[in-house]
Specification:
Layout: E1 4-8, H1 12-24, E2 28-32, H2 35-41, E3 49-53, H3 61-71, E4 76-81, H4 86-94, E5 99-102, H5 107-142, H6 148-161, E6 167-170, H7 177-187, E7 195-199, H8 205-213, E8 214-215, E9 227-228, H9 230-233, E10 238-242, H10 252-261, E11 263-264, E12 273-274, E13 278-283, H11 287-292, H12 298-304, E14 307-310, H13 321-336, E15 342-343, H14 345-353, H15 359-373, E16 378-379, H16 381-387, H17 411-429, H18 434-441, H19 445-455
Helix pairs in contact: 2-3, 6-7, 10-12, 13-15, 14-16, 15-16, 17-18, 18-19
The protein binds adenosine-5'-triphosphate (ATP) and magnesium ion.
């Protein structure tokens, strides 16, 4: 790629001479006769270097430098000046110009400096690439998994992170969807800006609209002041719409408009507010199926699903179990002050033989519970067994026996009680972790949440 240089000078003869000399050396050169014209020609990445005269009719070189930088923060500038304007040349250096030349100057000397600028730029690029590679290593450390499936996930995360497109992350509960979303934001250009998360399943439907879009003062009873929505709060950064499958149908058109137009209307607000936010969505539901069932709008689905990352369930990547066990043991040691070295091989067999419906989260919790029982230097078979309470739950569904006799209460109530009992035992099994209990019961966390309310159960009590 030939390096591109822009020469800005009002003396036509001088400018043309310089441009031709540089073109002969293999540079691609454009010319501008005024600073205004020069600024106009700058685009991000279009030029490597601007050679700028100081005294020009209209805008001066000093005034032009910040404007050039604004349009392309990475462009380099060398100023050219008559000796009477040396002061301003020094000022230009303070503004970030790379060097200055006093006219008349030797073309040879100029050429050496230009080559130095280009070399500096090449090195800078290398450093940037290196930084990215190192970040990539960091990524490898955070998202654990060496299975082919996880390697592919990590490659996708790398590729998608630096783009600005929307991402849809799918996978069963506990497979690491939020971790992936965190990583994408952290590796993106928006890393320093806010990352706002909204769990669409955890917020009562009646409040979801104003959470997302905000509301004006007096928009409804109780709206005593203006509230900015999550999109506004995420300005410049990213938003995670978690459990997007639970987005109520009636809010989906408004969300679609927001995503398409990058604008929201606060509830009770008259004029739209623009935002610049990258949208990441996650769900453990089969959105495609929900579209087919008419529960999710297809246009919104396609809008969100520009890039998609599908997380495989843990049972399909059991190769990752030893690595994950290592990671979680280190974390447990830090948190509990234990000094566990490893998982014994019989205990490891147990971990391998179970199919982990609650995936990585359930795995981490089971290991932590086992660590609490553990008395030796490594986690033993018995510790894991106790962590599973009555031995590892079999992968075949166990349906507790229903009463043989006819109930002496109406059928509806009997079914209700039976449901309540099943939920209780799921919560006992998972020590009150709702997402895991939902996975055991084969229902969505939101569904479980509704049922807990219905039965007056409190997961914290388990
Ligand atoms: N590949 C992984 N490497 C390291 N930790 C992981 C990995 N996958 C998941 N985890 C950990 O497991 C836990 C659950 O992950 P996360 O909350 O991201 O899952 P999720 O898919 O969002 O689950 P849910 O659908 O229930 O919200 C977190 O503590 C996360 O850090
Ligand atoms: Mg999650």
């Amino acid at each position: 790629m030939p390096k591109r240089i822009l020469v800005v000078d009002d003396e036509t003869a001088f400018r043309t001479m310089l441009a031709e000399a540089l073109a002969e050396k293999g540079y691609k050169v454009d010319e501008a006769a005024t600073a205004e014209e020069g600024v106009e020609m700058i685009r991000p990445g279009r030029y490597d270097l601007v050679l700028h005269d100081m005294q020009l009719p209209g805008m001066s070189g000093i005034e032009a430098i910040p404007l050039l930088r604004e349009r392309d923060p990475l462009v380099d500038v060398i100023v050219m000046t008559g000796h009477s304007t040396r002061d301003s040349a020094l000022k230009a250096m303070q503004q970030g110009a790379y060097d200055y030349f006093t006219k008349p100057f030797s073309l040879k000397e100029m050429e050496i400096v230009i080559r130095r600028v280009m070399e500096k730029r090449r090195l800078q690029l290398e450093v940037d690439n290196l930084k990215q590679a190192i970040q990539g290593q960091g990524l490898g450390r955070r998202i654990i998994g060496d299975s082919e499936a996880m390697r592919q996930v990590k490659r996708m995360v790398q590729r998608v992170a630096t783009l600005e497109t929307g991402v849809l992350i799918t996978g069963e509960t506990g497979t690491g969807k939020e971790l992936i979303a965190d990583t994408i934001h952290a590796l993106s250009r928006r890393a320093e800006k806010p990352f706002i998360k909204l769990n669409c399943a955890a917020i009562p439907e009646s409040l979801l609209e104003s959470e997302l879009f905000g509301h004006e003062k007096g928009a409804f009873t109780g709206a005593s002041s203006v509230k900015r929505g999550k999109f506004e709060l995420a300005e410049g950064g990213s938003i995670l719409l978690d459990e997007i499958g639970d987005m109520p149908l009636h809010l989906q058109p408004k969300l679609l408009r927001a995503v398409e137009q990058k604008q929201v209307e606060r509830v009770g607000g008259a004029k739209p507010v623009s935002f610049d936010v990258r949208i990441i969505a996650a769900t453990n539901q089969d959105l495609h199926q929900r579209v087919a069932d008419g529960e999710f709008r297809s246009d919104l689905y396609y809008r969100l699903n520009v890039a998609s990352i599908e997380l495989p369930p843990l049972r399909e990547r059991k190769d990752d179990i030893p690595l994950l066990a290592g990671l979680f043991l280190r974390q447990i040691n830090l948190r509990l002050g234990t000094d566990l070295a490893s998982v014994s091989s019989q205990a490891m067999d147990l971990l391998f033989n179970y199919d982990w419906p609650g995936n990585v989260r359930q795995f981490a919790n089971a290991l932590e519970r086992a660590a609490i029982f553990c008395e030796g230097p490594s986690v033993a078979f018995a510790d894991i067994e106790r962590a599973f309470r009555k031995g590892p739950p079999s992968s075949a569904p166990v349906v507790p026996a229903a009463p043989q006799d006819l109930p002496n209460v109406p059928l509806k109530q009997a079914v209700n009680d039976y449901e309540k009992a099943l939920i209780r035992s799921a919560l006992e099994r998972t020590a009150g972790v709702q997402t895991e209990a939902a996975a055991l019961l084969g229902i969505s966390p939101k569904n479980l949440w509704n049922k807990l309310k219905k039965h007056g159960l409190d997961s914290a009590a388990f």
